Amino acid sequence: MNQNVQTRSVSLKTQRQIDFVAENIAVISIPPAEVPMLYGKQTYLRFNILINGNCKGSPDDAAAAASLIERIEVWTLDNQAMLENIIDYNNLSATRNFYENNDAMTNLDGIIEGYSPNDSLSSIYFDMPSSQSQLGSTLFRQVEVCLPLRLSSVFFKKVFPVLAVSGIQLKVHFAQNNKSLRAYTATGFSAASGFELKVALPESPQTQLVLKNTGAEAATLANCPFVVDTSKPHTIQYVDNNGGTKNAGTLDGMSLDASGCIVLSSSSFTPDISANAGNKVFLSTSNLDLSYKVKHCELIACVVEPQKGYLQAMNKKLKEDINK
After folding, report:
1. CA 324 to chain CA centroid, nearest Å
2. Engineering a disulfide at 184: which of 56, 64, 128, 324 sits with its beta carbon 3.0 to 4.6 angstroms away?
3. 3-class secondary structure for the chain?
């Protein structure tokens, strides 16, 4: 676009200024009086993401914040004509990112588009505990993202004459939780990536499992992702001395002992085969549950301001064409 052409940005709120959740629809009207000409390259959705659940997690890193969007529709302002309908927006965004993004673009996505690796505990969406009082908590953070609608022919790169269609309306369909979020399971959720027992489990009633805090499979505040949620509890599992995987009840609490080892509290269980110190302990993945909220959603629209008289001439021409 000509560098001499002036632009300005305006904030357009959703019709319902609420917290959106999975399968909700956010509707944003773009009236021609406020946005006669839209410059898509500098237009983006801005919103905050807040995740909730019984485990740590983040949006699918293949599409970053776009993973929350299932479909984009663009209508005329009177809802009489659909101008654009992009189905499976999150998966298409992931495909585009796979083929077009390089390392520099991925780093930029992390700054503005909500990218955070699903297999990392250094996440922008949650913190790790720094004290015993935070053990077992999700510690989710609210993250603001600025998301260009790159797959749209109306809202990306080009100048779109909103005045020519008497205004447009953007409808954002938010995706189901299980299609947009990924739980962190890289460590602590399988025998291969589990933590080691510090204290053996004999064949007698048990209510605790003490984890090692030294060695390659140590459990520490910085690397233990377990979350305590008594409404949707996780099942603790361990490897016995015969190599079998056994259940150790549900995770009811977490604490640190005097030596700084993480202690998992469980409903009472009795091993039928003992487990030595050094055997693996992990959580089952069968009960992982995540959801999200989209807060303060708005469209930051870049408005082109052409030379004086251009819009009036354009509007006059449109009226003449209609009256022919």
Report:
1. 51
2. 56
3. CCCCCEEEEEEEECCCCCCECCCCEEEEEECCCCCCCEEHHHCEEEEEEEEEECCCEEECCCCHHHHHEEEEEEEECCCCCEEEEEECHHHHHHHHHHHHCCHHHHHHHHHHCCCCCCCCCCCCCECCCCCHHHCCCCCECCEEEEECCCCCCCCCCCEECHHHHCCEEEEEEECCHHHHEEECCCCCCCCCCCEEECCCECCCCEEEEEECCCCCCCCCCCCCCCCCCCCCCCEEEEECCCCCEEEEEEEEEEEECCCCCEEEEEEEECCCCCECCCCEEEECCCCCCEEEEEEEEEEEEEEEECCCCHHHHHHHHHHHHHHC
Residues 139, 56: Cα–Cα separation, whole Å: 8
**pLDDT for the residue 20:** 98
Which residues, other chains included, contact 128 with Cβ-Cβ below 8 Å and sequence gap of 6+? 121, 139, 221, 222, 223, 225
Which residue from 43, 254, 49, 252 is spatially nearest to 153, judged by alpha carbons? Answer: 43
Place 143 in a pLDDT band, splitting at 50, 70 and 90.
very high
Read off the pLDDT of each residue in 52-73 and give the average, rounded to a whole number: 97
Q: Which amino acid is at 240?
A: D
- Average pLDDT, integer, range 45-61: 97
Q: From CA 71, how far away is CA 177, in angstroms rounded?
A: 14
Strand pairing category for 195-196 and 280-283: antiparallel
d(CA 38, CA 161): 6
CB-CB contact of 58 with 116 (8 Å):
yes
Q: Is the dihedral of CA 58, 143, 24, 93 positive or negative?
A: negative
Cβ-proximal residues to 164 (8 Å cutoff; 6+ apart), any chain: 314, 318
Q: What is the pTM of this model?
A: 0.90
Q: Look at residues 138, 99, 97 and name the one whose alpha carbon lies nearest to residue 114.
A: 97
pLDDT for the residue numbered 107:
65
